[in-house]
Amino acid sequence: xxxxxxxxxxxxxxxxxxxxxxxxxxxxxxxxxxxxxxxxxxxxxxxxxxxxxxxxxxxxxxxxxxxxxxxxxxxxxxxxxxxxxxxxxxxxxxxxxxxxxxxxxxxxxxxx
Length: 112
Fold this sequence. Notes:
There is one protein chain. The protein is α+β, with helices and mostly antiparallel strands. It has one domain. The chain has 3 helices and 5 strands, in the order H-E-E-E-H-E-E-H. A 5-stranded antiparallel sheet has the order 3-2-1-5-4. Strand 1 and strand 2 (35-45) form a beta hairpin. The chain is globular. The mean pLDDT is 89.
């Protein structure tokens, strides 16, 4: 059952939550109105007191290539096919998808 957040905003719950920190292997896809704007590993993001929400992403081209190659694969072979959670801002139409990187990390380690 959904519950009301104990944080001042959902942004704070997602990005400022010490019980569930953002890790350096976290890949996100940022969409607006259903169109992908960018994707990559989260390097840094804006603090909660700012009105603007900004991200510094790394490996955007590599992540894009993995996402593109996943389109051609059967579901069980895709590396980035699981969305762990999504942050959606109803005011701006921005959707941030947090991808499960378990398969991708295993693939990189085995094919390094």
